[in-house]
Design a protein that fits this description.
2 domains; 273 residues; MetI-like fold; mainly alpha; 0% strand
Length: 273
């Protein structure tokens, strides 16, 4: 019993250390976003001598942060909505009709989680139809990227739901579509919320895809705006920290508000019946 308490104590200390390692960079950004330029020649955890809340006002006055914000909202919400809508339907159908060809299709989706095969061909298609520097091109790429994850999570959950529920719904006169909407969709709520949160955080903070696919500054997402902003204000780290804080705040809020669903959704989606 005593050894168990010691092990739990050590584990708790390790968790606190990892928590601090994660929180310290965030604290550095928050504190230095409220300092003057002179104080941020070296980024430290020291409190500001002068609290410069005007740094945030300068960001909105001197940059395209509002346009970039709406670009990020547009790309993130539409791509996630499409991936969850299409992936949920596909996962449900593949799980309930697990014949030879559907198993092959499911295996292809699993391969897409490991090696993004669908993205290679999709980027080539976007080049051919001249959609690289557009919202639609970026949305298509993110949708293709996350459909395999959605199919995997939904299929794993649906396979654990007894088919007796389907049969009872059919007896009550439900069509296949009504069965999906009225019976299965409410059960899938934890999975869908989990997928939304994890995909939102990734797409909102993603830098690689916008860098490859977006050229025009009018179409920049917030993260791509940070990259340009750091070049423009490379000597004013207080402004850079303020911009980074504005960029990351929505993703942090989404994660905090929805974190109670994540564990339940991950466990439910990983369980095979």
């Amino acid at each position: 019993m005593k050894m168990k308490k010691i092990r739990l104590g050590i584990f708790e200390v390790i968790l606190w250390i990892f928590s601090l390692l994660i929180l310290i960079p965030l604290a550095v950004i928050i504190i230095n976003s409220l300092k003057t330029s002179a104080e941020t020649n070296v980024l430290t955890l020291a409190m500001p001598k002068t609290w410069e809340f005007g740094n945030f006002a300068r960001i909105f006055e001197e940059t395209n942060v509002v346009r970039s914000f709406f670009n990020s909202v547009l790309v993130t919400t539409i791509s996630i909505a499409l991936s969850i809508f299409l992936g949920t339907i596909a996962g449900y159908v593949l799980s309930r009709n697990a014949d030879f060809w559907n198993k092959k299709i499911y295996a292809f989706f699993l391969a897409g989680m490991i090696v993004p095969l669908q993205m290679i061909s999709l980027v080539q298609v976007l080049q051919k139809i001249h959609m690289l520097d557009s919202y639609a091109g970026l949305i298509f790429v993110y949708t293709a990227m996350f459909i395999p994850q959605t199919v995997f999570m939904v299929s794993g959950f649906v396979s654990g739901v007894p088919k007796d529920m389907d049969e009872a719904g059919i007896v009550d006169g439900c069509t296949p579509w009504q069965l999906f909407i009225r019976v299965m969709l409410p059960l899938l709520k934890p999975i869908i919320v989990t997928l939304f949160i994890t995909q939102f955080v990734f797409v909102w903070n993603d830098f690689q895809m916008p860098l490859y696919l977006i050229k025009s500054s009018e179409n920049w997402t917030l993260v791509l705006g940070v990259y340009n902003f750091m070049g423009q204000f490379n000597s004013e780290w207080n402004m850079v920290c303020a911009y980074i804080l504005v960029c990351t705040l929505p993703a942090v809020l989404i994660y905090i508000l929805g974190q109670k669903y994540i564990v339940d959704g991950m466990v439910a989606g990983a369980v095979k019946g």
